[in-house]
Amino acid sequence: MTEAEDKVTEEELEPEEALAQDAAVEAPEPEPEAAPEEPDWKDLAHRYAAEADNVRKQAAQRVQKATRDGMKRLASELLPALDDFERALAHAESEEGDEEHTLTRGIRLVQEQMLAALKRAGIEQYSPSGERFDPHLHEAVATTPVEGAESGTVVEVYQAGYKLGEDVLRPAKVVVSA
Questions:
Q1: Rounded to two decimals, what is the model's pTM?
Q2: Same-domain status, 138 and 176
């Protein structure tokens, strides 16, 4: 190589070297890698405890709902039989042949035990005679004008209603004054 060629090469290299030197000055030196931060064990324990508590509460709510739904199904199956029982007893007691109604008295005791068992399970019978008509609690099967009764008042109950807590299992079938 000649001297002229060396000069050109050096001139060409100078800007590259200058850029390399500038980059070396601008780039920060790599810091040693920091150790991973230690997790907050207390916070994690609180979070997991809260999550476990929520799971327990949700499971308890599901069990309560399933129990309540089972009670509703059982009641819906038993209530028609209790209604038939009531009608049969009313008919037997209206017969004039048995003045003491000894058989019907015994059957009435069995009926009361069945109603008491339903009550212990949280299912209560209600008879809204004299109350104001409420379409959420009552089913109007007829209306009739009644002297002395305010319009919209239940004057006769054909069939008692049943509730499980605040839930209406079956509305009472009633006659309402017009």
A1: 0.62
A2: yes
